[in-house]
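Appendix B. Chain record.
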Amino acid sequence: MHRFPDRDALVDVAAGRRWTYAELAADVDALALGLLALGRVGSRPEAVVCWHTDRLVRVTKDLERVIALGVNVHAARAGHLDLSTPAGRAVARTVTAWATYEGEQKAERQALANLQAAKAGKPYTAGIRPFGYSEDHLAIVPAEAEAIREGASMILAGESLSAVARRWTEAGLLSPRSIAAGAKAWSLRGVKKVLTSPRYSGQRTYGGEVMGTAEWPAILDDATHYGVVSILSSPDRFSGGPRTGRTATTLLAGIAVCGVCGDTVSGRGYRGAKVYGCRWTHTRTPREVADKKAETATLARMVCPDFLPTVIAMNAGGCDADTAHLQAGLKSLRERLDGLALAYAEGAISLSQTTAGSKALRTKLEEVESKLSGVTGLPPLDPVSGIAGLIGGWADTPLPVKRSWVAFCTIVTLKPANGKHARNMTPEDHVSLDWHHLAEEGEE
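Structure tokens predicted for this chain:
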């Protein structure tokens, strides 16, 4: 029985007919399912009493389930429906059809009102407040907003969703929805949903499409938001490669390329062995073989007589630590633009998000390009120990620095087996290496 009308009215209907009732149901769906269950076990009620027939059944399929029970329906405000006769069933179906029509009309009116509110930038305040904003869905909650900014920065820096989830959980900043569900920690899905939501860049969406600027203040700027969206929405996410939200754990992931398709490779396992391979698995190059070749070639390039003069010349051209940082930022922005396009092609984000994101990232890209003005960047280099110190301490050099120098010095191409068995392949069969930044390039 429906919760809104006074339940006493329904009890009175039963009492006036000297009926006893076995159950009072406050939920329409629960009542219909309960009746059906009783019908299946052969313990059907003699009649059903409800406030109004459209409170019992609102769509035809539900009515047919009640008809199948073969019981009469008595409504406190709509009389008696004799479902045992063709005429009674016809009346019931007509009443239900009109109830369905009214329900659909109401839904359309509500959808139109929601759309208009979205276009005006107004928040959708039904339900639990979003993480980062107060109960009115407008005012920023400072501690949560700062956590969102920090999480976005971590993703852009190459850290994982897991790292962000741990940081937020350890800070005791659970989302209101998680608290309501009794969760004790952030899930990766929950973190991703927050960091990719247009809400946090001050945009109002409806049905997944960006409608325009929202009434509430943004927590993230557009370039940051869409940079994160590109990383976390890209179908090409893998450990250590480009457009990824994970910290690099292998030397050549995202640096070496497949000799067949030209895509960058990722680290993976194959029959218990650690290998590098592209998404199409054209190659399964043993990591140990590829890493050793790449590191040896990098160090060999560094000891070449022309290498130090080349680096000095590049620095003399204005490439200081700041410009190297800008160069890295330029590469990252271009990858994020590619990531947005790929995410849209795969259906991970909408067209409106892609358009808005591309505009924001291109604006940022133009700013960085204007600052660089053609300066070439270098990986980090200790100004005291220089190249000699880098070579001498290579074994203890952090992986990110090693990756930077390998990418700067070499072009690593991994070759397919071409029918050969792995145990019969030499390192040269697996890996092809060329050098970047030769003396001729520096002299041009």
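Further analysis of this model is presented in Appendix C.
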